[in-house]
Request: fold
Amino acid sequence: MGLMHMKNPANSRKKPSKGGLFFFLAGLIPSLIIGWVIYPMVLYSKQAQPINFSHSIHMNPEIVDGIEGDTEIEKCLYCHEFREDGTFAGIPKLAKCTECHDDPDSALGESEEEKKFLSKYVANEKEIPWYSYYRQPDCVYFSHIAHVKMGEINCKTCHGDHGKTDKLPVYQANRLTGYSINIWGRNIAGYKTNTWDRMKMDDCAECHTLKEKEGNNACFVCHK
Ligand code: HEC
Ligand code: HEC
Ligand code: HEC
Ligand code: HEC
Ligand code: HEC
Reply:
């Protein structure tokens, strides 16, 4: 057998068939749909908030008079206040609301949402059981005054536009980890485009490094 008769292995390889591509896509597309659409839908449990609350209505001085403060952040702090000892009040209690919504029998506006709020909570002096989108597990130590006052960081950096919203999003918790989607992140591939897209351990540490506060990246600083 001479060399001439040897088949060139490159020429003998079959051209990829269109059928192969078809089966490749037929497998790929459903798995993308399952991975990117169905899986995140199943992974998160969904819970509607007890009532709607519009930040945009309450922050608009032409509609709601009496939210005091010279700057936007001071207005936020009118409801989300720092107590005398520097601790953060978090989501306001009913007593803050009844400074204005003081009579369950006379609504301040026309909305159905306010009537529901008055009859269910104000009339019964019952606290609203809000789901907290941002609350961290108990093992995490976080101080608002250190970040907002000392660090001079805006609410938006960590909470996005929540303070401007009109309709509350459904509360979504990861079934495997128990974390709210606002902490775990919406993007399952892990990309982050905004500082507020996610607030996991690495996201806290990333900002500390950026702001040259690496000293706060020792375990005991965030886990007391
Ligand atoms: C400074 C006064 C003031 C405070 C404090 C206040 N509200 Fe209101 N709120 C208003 C007024 C005025 C309206 C009516 C707006 C309209 O419909 O014209 C309103 C409307 C509403 C509505 C209907 C519109 C919406 O947000 O969907 C709800 C619900 C409501 N308030 C809940 C609350 C809750 C809960 C609190 C406490 C965290 C609170 N309000 C604190 C003045 C206030
Ligand atoms: C009239 C009182 C009031 C004012 C003023 C107010 N908030 Fe709120 N805020 C609430 C209430 C009630 C809730 C609970 C319902 C909800 O999630 O929106 C809340 C919830 C939040 C949450 C979600 C916390 C969580 O873990 O679920 C953020 C973030 C927030 N507010 C930011 C802001 C910012 C930023 C501003 C100023 C731009 C602001 N708020 C002004 C009453 C107020
Ligand atoms: C550096 C990031 C950061 C900044 C800036 C920040 N927050 Fe937060 N916020 C957090 C974290 C983290 C939590 C969860 C704290 C926890 O669970 O102990 C939180 C929780 C909250 C909650 C819910 C508290 C609860 O008990 O459920 C509210 C309301 C809130 N923030 C409002 C604000 C407002 C208003 C501002 C601006 C004045 C602000 N935050 C600024 C990171 C931040
Ligand atoms: C956007 C930037 C930013 C993010 C996000 C951030 N931090 Fe910080 N953090 C700071 C800065 C700046 C300081 C220093 C404040 C100062 O003392 O001037 C600080 C200080 C601290 C301190 C020390 C101050 C104290 O109260 O003892 C702790 C603890 C801390 N951060 C925890 C956290 C945790 C937990 C998270 C995430 C849930 C977080 N931080 C997210 C910027 C950030
Ligand atoms: C800058 C703040 C910060 C520092 C520093 C930090 N952590 Fe965390 N840690 C967090 C936050 C916020 C969470 C909750 C979110 C998450 O799981 O990413 C967390 C969650 C955890 C959890 C999971 C707890 C649970 O209930 O799921 C463990 C374990 C943990 N941290 C251990 C450590 C160890 C060990 C170190 C030191 C190497 C450390 N952390 C340093 C902020 C911090």
